[in-house]
Amino acid sequence: MSASRRSGTTDELGPDEPGPGREGSDGSDLLAALLDGMDAALCAFDAHGTVTHWNREAERILGWSADEAVGRAGFAGWAVRSADAEEVEARLMSAMDAPGRQVNEFALLTKDGGRVLVRTQSAAVPGPDGKPAGVYCAFSEVHAQIDLERSIALSEALLDDASWGVVLVDADLRPAVVNAHAARALGAGRTAVLGRPLGELLAQGVEELESALTHVLAEGAPPAPAELWVSVRGPEGERRRCWRSGFVRLASPLAEEPVPLGVGWLFQDVTEARQGEQEASLLRFRAQQLHRAARAAAECEDPAEAVTVHLDFALAGFADHALIDRVAECPGDAGAVRLVRIAATPSGAPGPSRLDGRAGLPVRYAESHPAVQCVERSGSVRAGAGALSAEDARAWALARQWPQDAVHALCTVLRSRGRTLGAVTFLRGAGRQAFERSDAMYAEDVAVRIAASLDLAALVPPDH
Question: pTM score > 0.70 for this model?
Answer without folding.
Answer: no
